[in-house]
Amino acid sequence: MKLVILSAVTLGTIVALAGGGQGAGRAITSTPAERAPVLVELFTSEGCSSCPPADEVLARLAKSQPVSGALVIALSEHVDYWNRLGWRDPYSAKLFSERQSAYATAFRKSGVYTPQIVVDGRAELVGSDARGVHREVANAARDPKLKIVVSRGGTASSLRIRVESAASLPKGERAEVLLAIIENDLHSQVSRGENSGRRLSHTAVVRRLEGVGFIEGGAAFEKEIPLTLDRSWNVANLNAVVFVQEGSAGKVLGVAQGAL
């Protein structure tokens, strides 16, 4: 496993890290303007007939990176509350429904809906609204970002996460560091429910999401995380996404990703 993940990606930059352990490797960078990483979360379901267009919006964002100055890092979180209506989404989990509910409270919404996109924990909108999503991504890219570096840990099945000093957080306050394992190029043949008969494709499906610690204002964060991957996942299509978020559904202060 080789990983180098920076919270800002430089256009034309090659970043490489070889070897294991703390302090191993080197980074090579060039001078063009940096793209600011922006976390785009899509709350979706295979049981929702309005969701496939939003799945396509997310896929285009992640693949073509159309927003100048921004690097979109995508998460597709499949909620489970549609499962009772005829089709059990194989990628759904209660955790994602709970996360969306926390956002609803933070945004003072009366309830949840799909498809919904949340940009950097700061703005929410209908997931199929491509123009609106582009606008919010551009806005989020203007905010300062924490730098996150993820490298190979002491073993082949671990990651080392480092977050630079959280100067944007007041001393005494803290934000959570989260790790998501995502899988790309997933497909389902839906046989029941609102999308019956359709073959659906998904990008950046969250297979696992967990908090790995907290960073305090004025301090840095560093930790080695063991990785346990399900045998049913296609390792070639997996990525690790690390992000720092205020509270359970607050602003995202930094995000980074890389292939496993």
Would you write up a description of this structure?
The protein is of the alpha+beta class. The chain has one domain: Immunoglobulin-like, CATH 2.60.40. Helices cover 15% and strands 37% of the residues. The chain has helices spanning 51-64, 94-106, 130-141; strands spanning 4-5, 9-10, 34-44, 70-78, 116-119, 123-126, 148-152, 158-163, 174-183, 186-189, 199-202, 205-216, 221-226, 238-245, 252-259.
Provide a short characterization of the protein structure.
With 260 residues, this protein is of the alpha+beta class. Helices cover 15% and strands 37% of the residues.
**Helical percentage:** 10-25%
- Assigned CATH class: Mainly Beta
Strand count, sense and barrel status of the largest sheet are: 5 strands, mixed
Q: How do the helices and strands follow one another from N- to C-terminus? A: EEEHEHEEHEEEEEEEEE
Secondary structure category: alpha+beta
Query: Into which percentage range does the β-strand content fall?
Result: 35-45%
Unreliable segments (pLDDT under 50, ≥5 consecutive)? 1-32
Second CATH tier, the architecture = Sandwich
Principal-axis shape: globular
Please report the total strand number as a whole number.
15
Global Rg: 18 Å
CATH topology: Immunoglobulin-like
Number of helices: 3
Report the CATH superfamily.
Immunoglobulins
Report mean pLDDT, rounded to a whole number. 87
Distance between the termini: 6 Å
Q: How many domains make up the coordinates?
A: 1
